[in-house]
User: Fold this.
Amino acid sequence: MTADAQRILVVEDDKPLRSTLVATLKAEGYAPLEAGSVTAAQQRLSERSVDLIVLDLGLPDQDGMNLLAALRNAKDLTPIVVLTARDNEASKVLALDLGADDYVTKPFGVAELLARIRSALRHGVQLRGAMPIVHVGDVEIDLAARRVLKAGSEIKLSRKEFDLLATLAADVGQPVAHERLLEQVWGSPDADIRYLRVYIGQVRDKIEDNPQAPRLIVSTPGFGYTLRQ
Ligand code: CA
Assistant:
């Protein structure tokens, strides 16, 4: 496994199957991460971005469809291959409608799953090509890979911190209204603006040279924030 091996999150509560998948992916040169529930998967994803998710639907805490829907609602385009024993067509259509890249029914052959994973990863790379990398000062924001570098080193942002920065980056140089940021990151324009102030402070702490005198994320009082180039 190399440092730049593609990271694949395996979300599966069946331990023997998860171990087999992890071992298989490692043997293929990927860097697998694992989770046995939707909550554990969300925890992993808040810690670091991944290149692809293999997602079981029947999970102990929630339906895997919820995770799929939450990621796509948040405009997270990480490729997702759904892996499930549900082989009815309605379930498959729902998963694909929600934005799954592919759907593999158990029992499956490992070679088939690996082929689906390779295909979904290629698709992910194509999407990435369509999404820009935004540069501000010494900060590089890769919108598709959900990665942020400052002076060449990766900065760890939580999911909400990244969503906030990405919303500003999508309109770099233009002021973005408080309401739009609240809607994009917290799901409602009426969310408490104090959350926004707290998270703006956290992102500034991570990307600004001097967070007390921010030069990258500047405030337009009474309106919103601008990510300045
Ligand atoms: Ca299961």
Summary: DSSP finds eight helices and twelve strands in the chain. The two ends are 37 Å apart (CA to CA). Residues 74 and 187 are 9 Å apart (CA to CA).
